[in-house]
Amino acid sequence: MAFSDFLIDGLSRSRERFDRALSGVTVKQANTQPTPKKAPRVDSLSWLAWHTAREIDFQIAPLAGVEPVWITGRHKERFALDLPDDTEDWRHTPEQAAKVVVGDISVLTAYLDDAYAMAAGYLRTVGEDDVDAVVDDSWDPPVTLAARLVSIVDDAAQHSGQAVYTRRLLGLPG
Predict the structure, then answer these.
(1) Dihedral of the CA atoms 31, 36, 39, 45 (nearest 10)?
(2) For a Cys staple, 160 with which of 14, 50, 113, 114, CB 3.0–4.6 Å?
């Protein structure tokens, strides 16, 4: 297996998990925080899918030298969120996360599809000789491409697993 295929396979597993988590859910179920009083940071399926697509999109796009698909794919208009466009979603309060709602599940899957496709296209260009390059020197120690890619894959795996858990908290099978 080529190095880029290894990365793509790791990332694609989380996309498949989102398909399972979103399968057969209603819009109301997707937008529901399942335990808002008991565990307010168990986010909705909508927030988890949106956030995962966004973290992939907004971290891979600069590496690939392209605009985020949030803009080029017109996802910003499709979601029409009551949040600033530069929202740091990884810092969302439960109230901010609850603002991520959709009127159609396809809005979520389309953004996931576009973000994952853009990421796979970029990852096909990454070779083993590239991974030691510093891509962000605002951290101490500076972040290498390898560290950034592992972080992206790990975050997607974490949130897709949370989506499966959220689905179960909503009383749905799977």
Answers:
(1) 0
(2) 14
Please identify every stretch of the chain with a pLDDT value under 70, giving residue numbers as ranges.
none
As a whole number of angstroms, the distance between CA 122 and CA 124 comes to 5
Q: Where are the alpha helices (DSSP H) in the chain?
A: 3-22, 27-31, 45-64, 69-72, 75-79, 94-97, 105-123, 145-169
**How far, in Å, CA of 119 to CA of 24, rounded?**
26
CB-neighbour burial class of residue 91 (10 A; exposed 0-12, middle 13-18, buried 19+): exposed
Contacts of 101 (CB under 8 A, 6+ apart): 31, 44, 46
pLDDT for 36 equals 82
Question: In the structure encoding, which two tokens stand for residue 142, read together?
Answer: 């500076």
Give pLDDT tens digits for 33-57. 998 888 877 899 999 999 999 999 9
Q: What is the pTM of this model?
A: 0.94
Closest Cα partner for 57 from 11, 10, 103? 11
